[in-house]
Structures are given as C-alpha cells and as structure tokens.
Amino acid sequence: xxxxxxxxxxxxxxxxxxxxxxxxxxxxxxxxxxxxxxxxxxxxxxxxxxxxxxxxxxxxxxxxxxxxxxxxxxxxxxxxxxxxxxxxxxxxxxxxxxxxxxxxxxxxxxxxxxxxxxxxxxxxxxxxxxxxxxxxxxxxxxxxxxxxxxxxxxxxxxxxxxxxxxxxxxxxxxxxxxxxxxxxxxxxxxxxxxxxxxxxxxxxxxxxxxxxxxxxxxxxxxxxxxxxxxxxxxxxxxxxxxxxxxxxxxxxxxxxxxxxxxxxxxxxxxxxxxxxxxxxxxxxxxxxxxxxxxxxxxxxxxxxxxxxxxxxxxxxxxxxxxxxxxxxxxxxxxxxxxxxxxxxxxxxxxxxxx
Length: 354
Ligand SMILES: Cc1cc2nc3c(=O)[nH]c(=O)nc-3n(C[C@H](O)[C@H](O)[C@H](O)COP(=O)(O)OP(=O)(O)OC[C@H]3O[C@@H](n4cnc5c(N)ncnc54)[C@H](O)[C@@H]3O)c2cc1C
What we know:
By secondary structure, this protein is of the alpha/beta class. The chain has helices at 81-88, 126-139, 160-169, 196-202, 221-233, 286-293, 328-332, and strands at 7-18, 21-27, 43-50, 53-60, 71-75, 95-98, 116-122, 144-151, 174-180, 214-218, 241-244, 264-270, 273-279, 310-315, 318-320, 335-337, 341-343, 347-351.
C-alpha cells in the first residue's frame, strides 16, 4: 500500500484525440519495464509541480497489456489544475513523475478464456476500458467484447480512430455501440445518455445478460450507479460487475489544524517509520494529518475514488465519509481510505505498509 513510489520518466509523445483530449505516452526505462507492466484497467499516478504546488492525479493506462511505452488519455477539464497543465504546458521530452500501475479495476486476459465481456463507458471513462478491449482481442482469441460508449457528439469521442481500427481488425469479436446525447440517430435507443432506462431496453435486445461473464463500468456516478442497479435486478452477480469512478464529488479541502489539541491519538506507520498525530473526530481527515508530518505519504484524488491513500487499521475504529473504491471485503479486512477517514475511538493505529 505504501508503494506509491514516483519515478521520473520522459514524455515520449503527446497526440490530440479530440478538441479537448490528448494522449500522452511515457518512455519507461528498460530497467523499470517489469515494474511498469500493467494489468488492463489499472492507472498511473502522475505528479508535477504546477504553480509551485505538488499536484498528483490518476490516469488510466489505455495501451494494451505489454506495451513498452504506456499511454494515458487526458481530457481537459475547464479550470482543472492538472489537465490544463498537461494540455497547455507539458511538452514532448519533458520529464514528469509517475508511479507504477495500480488499481483493482482490472481484467486479466487468459488465452484459454471463451468469455463475453461488456463495458459501459462514458467520455474519458473509455481509457481503462480501451486497454481491456485491446488486450482481450489480442490475448483471448476466443472471447468477445461489446462496448456501449456514451458521448456528447461524434467530435467528442476519444479514441474514435483506434476503436474503428479494432472493429475493422476483429469484426466478429468486437461490437461497439455509440450513444450520443447531442446528436440524433435513426435508432432512438442510440440517442441520449446511457441511463438505467436505456440500459434496461438494451438488455434482452442487443445484449443478453446471462451470456456475459464480466461487466466493466466507467463513467459518471449516475451512469455507474444506474447500470449497477439494472444489472443486479437482472440477476447479474455482484462479483461479475466491476466499476470505477474518476470523480466522486468535490475534493476534500485540506482544513488540517495539525495543532489540534483535542482529539484521538492516531499512530501511523509509513515505510517502516511510525509517527503520531492528534486528530479531531470531526475535523480534517487522517490523511491531512499524515501529510503534515510525512509529506511523502501516498495520495492522489483525495475524494475517495482512487484508493492511493489506503491503509489498514490494526487498532481502533474510524469512520469514512465516502468510499467509491474499496470493496466490502477490503473494508471488512480493516482497509480504509485515509483521505475520507476520521477517528471514532480514542486510539487508532494504522499502517500503510501492507
Ligand atoms: C482511478 C482514476 C483514473 C482516472 N483516469 C482518468 C483518465 O484516464 N483520463 C482523464 O481524463 N481523467 C482520469 N481521471 C480523473 C483525473 O485524475 C483528474 O481528476 C482530472 O483530470 C481532473 O483533474 P484537474 O486537476 O484537471 O481538475 P481539478 O483541478 O482537480 O478539478 C477542477 C474542478 O472540477 C471538479 N472535477 C474534478 N474532476 C472532475 C470530473 N472528472 N468531472 C467533473 N468534475 C470534476 C473538481 O471538484 C473541481 O471543482 C481518473 C481518476 C481516477 C480516480
């Protein structure tokens, strides 16, 4: 868990994907290639100093498994600190810091599988899914992949050329259904947003849920929650549905008062060193106190979505405001998102070193 080690790497290429999205690929030194080998669906944490601030964001790898120079697709968010920096300032040849791949939203291809996968993605949610599609088509010759992909209009579809090329190369194993919210289509089912109602109508017509072995959902919370509900109501086991949110709501603002005089004792171990903080039960989350003492502590989205800041509670109890990234089994085993956690018991001991 504490393995959020950044490595300086060179930017190998920056290519436009749409008016507001670029792909960025990284030149991974040969001695780090094993460390950077990814499972389709994983993301990297990318870090840069922007206006004097240490800024870190997660970006899903969109290249196929085994790619020597992993790439990510970054959509510009109006006013967004990191995406604006990437679009306006980052150049080919620059050095930027990245972590090895991380994350549990994964599909591990196996040559002998004869599976049928369905991904439901919207906007930049295509990035982890594209890696899965490329990898399944390449490494699972008997499996099929269907992609339901929602966007505003044709111009805003990220990786349109790549998806068309995959469709051309694997016409019998790859099906792509574009659903556009601001363009009309002769088939009304393919117009609008991918919401629960639309998905309900697709199941049983273009997709037979019982034949699907894995569902992969990546997009805004409304789409992901809606799809989860519809799939579960069709009897799809929870274990077959995998989802990832890129954004879980407004960021937790750092309001840390490291000098909190009253509060619980939080003892945390990070890379073998144990430190102690006093943390108010209703103040800033534990992560903010950790970073005040150990600026090398792991974090990225700070909104409960990426799990970079996860740790394991060994003594005591915490409460989490939000959790969009840990499974119930992980929570049951004591894992927490420190960016969302506040002490409940007077003493909490936790470790990032698991
Ligand atoms: C696991 C994971 C994988 C990700 N993969 C990708 C990827 O492949 N491609 C990609 O483009 N992004 C991806 N993201 C999102 C990415 O990490 C950043 O959050 C995004 O680029 C915005 O960062 P920013 O610094 O530009 O915006 P910020 O400065 O962080 O945010 C600006 C404003 O927009 C809000 N906001 C932040 N993110 C969003 C959002 N997604 N939608 C709506 N409002 C938002 C913030 O609350 C804030 O008000 C991923 C996130 C996670 C957790």
